[in-house]
Amino acid sequence: MHITRSGAFVLGISIVSAFKDTSPFFLFSTSELLASSPDLVSAASLSKAIVPELEACTSDTYVIVSQLGVNAADYHGRLSAPHLRMKMLGNDKSIRSSLSVKDVLGGLDAQEMSRIVQAKCGAGHLRVDASTGSFAIAENAKPRVINLDFPAPPVGAGRSTKLVENDAFLASVLDLLPSSKYTVIYITSPTNAAQHSEEAEPEPYEMDSIFQAPVHAELKRDFSYKRASDGNITLPKGPLFERYQYLTPGLFMGLLVSFLLVSILYVGINGVASLQVSYAAFDKEMGPAAQKKQAQQ
């Protein structure tokens, strides 16, 4: 009986907005695993739901994939991870249960899950380096845990191509498994977490000798002239106006503004000076005409 418990699979839904510090999680198995499929959970709560299923040891092989530097939008396209999409959507009839979480807040510890399966199921451990492109799986009946690590894909046009290559590599690993009973735990981490883990702490600069300090300070200076062996300064050759710049842009703008201000001041002073008023205009009228006006008022 085919059972798919993934709910709304992140590969087939339209992503409206992505959380900054979240990344998707996928799980599919040929055994029936009872698990819910929420859209947003914390890494701690998701780990509590998955660990009891792993401790049941229902599979012969556990493939724990660790993909750095991705988010839910990277798996939105139909061709971004075709093999993973086929497993999660139930196109592979051997898959009896699947689980997907669109946004996991925090990071799941792939090494801790590997240790749990090794301790509870007595499984052997095998780490596959995807960068080499080669691996070997021993054909025996003993349960095994395979850790498959994928680096963060590049940012740009080659991002989707790298995810397709990782998906094909995972499909090759599953095809070479000696047993048809397997469980794949696909753990991802957000882009900022991958960048933070890849950034190495800069090494502090250690000075070989205290007498080297003036030498480093001297190298930072940019001298436009050369010193002769006798200590005199040798000036560059060429005409005077080619060696120096006398009219800089700042000086030119200052002169232009000064000319405009002086012109305005000159016009104002000339206008005030051109006013002509007779002295009689300020004298008070004392004649008969003035007395007649006062009598009328």
Textual characterization of the structure:
With 297 residues, the chain is an alpha/beta fold. It is 34% helix and 17% strand. The chain is built from nine helices and nine strands. The protein has helices spanning 43-55, 82-88, 110-121, 159-175, 191-198, 213-219, 240-243, 249-273, 288-296, and strands spanning 22-29, 40-42, 61-67, 97-105, 124-129, 144-150, 182-188, 226-227, 233-234. The strands form two sheets. Strands 2-4-1-7-3-6-5 form a seven-stranded mixed beta sheet, with helices on both faces. A hairpin with a 5-residue loop joins strand 8 (226-227) and strand 9 (233-234). The protein starts with 21 loop residues before the first strand and ends with a helix. The model is unreliable at 1-18 and 196-231 (pLDDT under 50).
Can you summarize this structure?
With 297 residues, the protein is an alpha/beta fold. It has 9 helices and 9 strands. The N and C termini lie far apart (122 Å).
What does the radius of gyration come to? 41 Å
Mean pLDDT reading: 76
In terms of structural class, how would the helical and strand content be classed? alpha/beta
Question: Judging from the principal axes of the Cα atoms, what is the shape?
Answer: elongated
Number of strands: 9
